[in-house]
Amino acid sequence: MHSDYLNPAMRQLRDQQVRFAPREKKIEQVTQAERLLGELEPARIYPYGYICYRVTSYRPDGYPDMKLTGREATHDLRLFVEDVSDAANVTADAVGEPVLTVETLAKEFNVSTKTISRWRQQGLISRRFVVDGRKRVGFLQSSVERFVEQNRERVRRGAQFSQLSEEERVMIIGRARRLARAGGCPADVTKRLAHQTGRSAETIRYTLKQFDHEHPEAAVFPENHGPLQLEAKRKVYQLYQRGESVEGLASRFHRTRTSIYRIIAEVRAQRIMELPLDYIPNDVFMRVRSQKTEDRIVGPMPASEVPVKKTRLPTGLPPYLISLYEVPLLSRKQEAHLFRKMNYLKYKASRLRAKLDPSRPTRNIMDQVERLYDEAVSTKNQIIRANLRLVVSIAKRHVGPTQNFFELVSDGNMSLMRAVEKFDYARGNKFSTYASWAIMKNFARTIPDEHRHRERFRTSQAEMFTTTEDARTDQFELESTQTQREAQVERILRRLDDREQKIIIRRFGLRRGQEPLTLKQVGVELGVTKERIRQIEARALSKLRKAADEEKIEFPA
To answer: What pLDDT score does 468 carry?
Structure first.
């Protein structure tokens, strides 16, 4: 059925009644429109004013000279009946006469549901009713009888063409079962049987569907009658995210498109419920009452009051360190703005998520939560990038002869990320002070005990001890420790899948001769966004911490 109005005046009339007419008035106008439909002649010309008056009982102010052909008026009035009845929210048992669904009507006249769709285009008037809590297309018994009275020959031909004998039905079920056992999906089986029998695909589909519904223990496609397992649902969502069409997924998993959409929404809602939306509360957030105030909080970062000076880079710096100098440091005002913005976005997303019902998720709420979360993550990354130089400067002061500088930097970066989540900007402290203590505290836990002891007992004769030290013994211990550490890392890395391993190895430079890469650089290598790399990295690090606990390996908290 064509879903758009041919005449803009009729569309405007529909909008007015849907938005402003009381429920009783909507029902009355639907009845009057259906009565008018039975009187229209396709070739006759009707003034719009006449059409409007017959439906609403008032003369329109606009479109005084507009005229419609009977065919145009019939098309638009059928849409009007369906749209306005949809807005009236009438239950099927409150109408006062029997209401037939597409399926029951098809069964009653022994035709396919596709034939019913053709009949709707040819004059069978449909409305929308609430059936078992859901909106469904339905037909009043009186509307059906009127259509049959006016189209007896058409109805007779449709029933004759679509009628299947019992022998044909048994033959179709048998062939379908053999094709399904050979690996055919419902769409392929339906298409092949339609070609072999000369019947329409809709007739074959309806026959198989009815059989499976009436005989679930011997269903041709039993998987259509049981819920998908959680792992299969996640697979559906993964494939959809990678660009596979809903039609392709429906065929692959032997489901309807509607059920695939429902599965996608369900898994998406579950993932949204698992998003880390912890925030540092602030009284300002609860006092936001206007869009202007909110725009000020989530708007662009204010410009620096002091002109940014270009830093002169030391020669011979590795690429990772060079990239850090490309990001300017934040002023106190900029810093406060970004922390307020990040926490407000998570606060707002958290409140929206509380309204989400995972069993019946609303797409609009999910879109808003994901958008707010993505903005919060982007803001957090902006803060982190501006403070990576701080980690490097602290690591330089703590690196010793037994430490790998970039290992310390990677460890410090993790401390920096946790500090961003925990920092309360409203207390008036500068973030660099808070982050410095967090990073140094973590270094104090992770730097080997023997190094701290050696620093504690160093004397003025340190150089002499250095020259007389047995380097071979020390080298052996270092190599032994390093070999043990590498074996431990390799062991717990095996807990990850191939993609997670590659990301962790590239991000933290775990292979000899490799330097740590940024999220963006790893994303370019793997062909995905840096935000996706961040998500996979966080999941992988969580697995590694669990593996380290099980293996009794010391791992940064």
So the answer is: 38
Residue 545 pLDDT greater than 50, yes or no: yes
Q: Distance (Å, rounded) from C-alpha 127 to C-alpha 149?
A: 19
From 94, 95, 112, select the one nearest 103 (Cα to Cα). Answer: 112
Q: Please, are residues 422 and 447 in contact by the beta-carbon 8 Å criterion?
A: no
Mean of the per-residue pLDDT values of the chain: 82
Tokens read off for 352 = 């929206």
13: tokens are 């009339």
The residues pairing with 46 across neighbouring beta strands, listed in sequence order, are 68
Instruction: Tell me the two tokens of residue 410.
Output: 């990677």
Task: Say how many residues make up the chain.
Answer: 557
Between CA 239 and CA 231 the distance in angstroms is 12
State whether 403 and 499 are in the same domain. no
Q: Residue 372: what pLDDT?
A: 95
Compute CA distances 396 → 319, 349, 496, whole Å: 17, 39, 31
Q: Of 424, 458, 492, which residue is a domain's last?
A: 458
Per-residue DSSP letter, 497: -
Residues 284 and 403 grouped into a single domain: yes
User: What is the pLDDT at residue 462?
Assistant: 41
CA distances from 126 to 73, 77, 82 (A): 16, 11, 6
Task: Give the residue-averaged pLDDT of 58-70.
Answer: 89
CB of 138 closer than 8 Å to CB of 86: no
**Same-domain pairing of 64 and 127:** yes
Q: Is residue 464 in a domain? A: no
Cα–Cα distance between 11 and 2 in angstroms, integer?
14
Q: How many CA atoms lie less than 13 Å away from 83 in the CB half-sphere? A: 22
Q: What is the mean pLDDT of residues 484-504?
A: 81
Residue 421 is predicted with a pLDDT of 92
- Single-letter amino acid code for the residue at 226: G
Helix or strand holding residue 127 (H, E): strand 127-131
- Give the pLDDT of residue 54: 94
Q: Do residues 523 and 550 share a domain?
A: yes
Report how many domains make up the chain.
Answer: 4
Assign 498 a pLDDT band (cuts: 50, 70, 90).
confident
**C-beta atoms surrounding 477 within 10 Å:** 12
Q: What are phi and psi of 542, to 5 degrees?
A: -65, -40
Q: Scanning the structure block, which residue is given the tokens 């409203």?
A: 426
Domain limits for position 447: 278-305+314-458
**3-state SS assignment for residue 251:** helix
What is the spatial distance between Cα 69 and Cα 49, in angstroms, rounded to a whole number?
A: 13
Please check the confidence at residue 227 and state whether its pLDDT lies above 80: no
pLDDT, tens digit (0-9, with 9 covering 90-100), for 126-183: 999 998 888 889 999 999 998 898 888 888 776 655 567 788 889 998 998 888 877 6
